[in-house]
Amino acid sequence: MKNKSMIKEIASMETLRQAWQRVKENQGCRGSDGVTIEVFDWQAESHLAELAQDLLNQTYAPFPLMRFQVPKRNKQGLRYLSVPTIRDRVAQTSVYMVTREIFEKEFESFSHAYRLGRGVRTAIKEIEFWRDKGYRHAVDADIASYFDTVSHDRLMQKLMVLFKNDEICRLFEKWIRVQVYDGRQIWKLEKGIPQGSVVSPMLANLFLDELDEMLMEFDRKLVRYSDDFIILCKSEQEFEETIELTDMILEDMDLDLNPKKTQRVSFDSGFKFLGALFLYDKVYIPFPKKREKDFIPQLPPPLTLKRYIELTLLK
Q: 3-class SS at 228?
């Protein structure tokens, strides 16, 4: 698809209506501008038409992300989400819909997160496949603060290869080098991929595709789910070499292994990965727990124009 026609497709009312429908069905919280799904819906056609013109005229600019805390999946502490406004979510969803296949062509088969037809189950099946081929040991690896440490310059370089430095690339750059608002201050994101944005999963996979390709070149059996991954080995002797190789690749990507969470595991001793327990030739997948009462996050107050000017002038 030509870049110009890609922008036209992203900005078409048909695509934007589909994107809006997806955002509406997800029923997320409001953004930093205070606009909720219900409020946006009152004049959705007008909002979409205005967004279409901004995208076509290259005058589109995202509002600051709204940052707040939510519980971690394991409920051990809290993590930060940085959520776009409803309008920006529609724009990102439209770009996601149009560019998804381009990203997909870059990704390797052993990358399982945030992809249609893939997920935790397919990752588990791949681990079983290599186990049955004689890979009885593994390096259970963890990248230190992955989403907070991704280099924006390196990420933009990868996007430029995909989109040849056109308007699509500039759109992604606006969402990557975005401002963030937490109720007390506003700052520009200098590094990292904000968790909570529609396009963040694609960007996270794109950045780690370099790791995937390098490990594949060295014939390592990798199974990756976002920044959680294991590398399967046939013997204990492979551990050190595999850890050193992975550490070198990540260091070249301006990332680091987390030494406290990167460990040697084996099927004979048993280990957990993606919530499943692997022990000998069995896999134990826990039944989904009953959903507890929803956590109600403390959202920052809406960011008015007056407040925006006050906070930016304070710097």
A: strand
Mean pLDDT by 10 residues, the chain (315 residues): 77 97 94 95 96 95 94 74 96 96 95 94 96 95 93 96 86 96 94 93 97 96 95 89 94 93 93 94 78 72 88 73
Q: How many angstroms separate the CA atoms of 173 and 167, rounded?
A: 10
Main-chain dihedrals φ then ψ at residue 184, nearest 5 degrees: -115, -30
With CA atoms as reference, report the closest residue to 97 among 5, 28, 18, 27: 18
Q: Are 202 and 105 in contact (CB under 8 A)?
A: no
Strand partners, 29: none
Beta-bridge mates of residue 68:
81
Tell me if 41 sits within 8 A of 87, measured CB to CB: no
DSSP of 257-299, one letter per residue? B-TTT-EEEETTT-EEETTEEEETTEEE-PPPPPPPSPP---P
Distance CA 270, CA 265 (A): 7
Q: What is the pTM of this model?
A: 0.92
